Amino acid sequence: MDLDYIVSEETKKLWAVELSLFEKFEEICNKWNLTYYASDGTLLGAARHKGFIPWDDDMDFGMLWPDYKKLMEIAPKECDYPFVFQGIYSDPYSMVVGSRLRRSDTTGFTKWEYENIGPEHDLGVFIDIFPLFSVPDSEEERAEQKEKVMHLWRCIHG
């Protein structure tokens, strides 16, 4: 691990915006008693670096499906400017797999978003929120669930 990694001022500003998004996300989750988990690089950064991974530029969270589904219903109503919640029920340009909480007074988007959605859409700095699903105890039910997931994956990715 490179402990001498230098974090740019630009990255620190991005992290500050993402932390404000996390605070809004946490506020909504606490108000509605929703449980979330840090995931991916956010989890690794929290455990290994006590914050962000120095070279990471985003935050990822997961929620079990019942809480995630509730979040998709309530979050759009809980967000006032500059916060915007983009989910499959509230935004036709939402991510296929997850949702995003954005700051519309900023600019931050992926290459795919720029090329496929366009800069006129709300493309502020964001945090990702993904649904998590439980795994059945039965081996037969797990195999059936896996087949359904793989079918959806093939539908999405061709």
Concise summary:
This protein has helices at residues 9-31, 40-49, 65-78, 111-116, 139-157; strands spanning 37-38, 60-64, 83-86, 99-103, 125-132. With 158 residues, the chain is α+β, with helices and mostly antiparallel strands.
Model description:
Helices cover 46% and strands 15% of the residues. The longest helix has 23 residues, at 9-31. The model has no long low-confidence stretch (mean pLDDT 88). It is globular, with a radius of gyration of 17 Å. It is α+β, with helices and mostly antiparallel strands and 158 residues long.
Feature tags:
five-stranded mixed sheet, alpha+beta
From the 3D structure, determine the CATH topology.
Beta Polymerase, domain 2
Whole-number radius of gyration?
17 Å
Physical arrangement of strands within the biggest beta sheet? 1-2-5-4-3
Helix amount, in percent?
40-55%
Distance between the termini: 37 Å
What oligomeric arrangement do these chains adopt?
single chain
Main β-sheet: number of strands, strand sense, barrel status? 5 strands, mixed
CATH architecture identity: 2-Layer Sandwich
Parts with pLDDT < 50 across at least 5 consecutive residues: none
Q: Which percent band covers the strand fraction?
A: 15-25%
Return the CATH class: Alpha Beta
How many alpha or pi helices? 5
> How many domain modules?
1
User: Helix- and strand-based class?
Assistant: alpha+beta
Mass-distribution shape: globular
Q: What is the H/E order? A: HEHEHEEHEH
Give the tally of β-strands. Answer: 5
Q: Roughly what is the average pLDDT, rounded to an integer?
A: 88
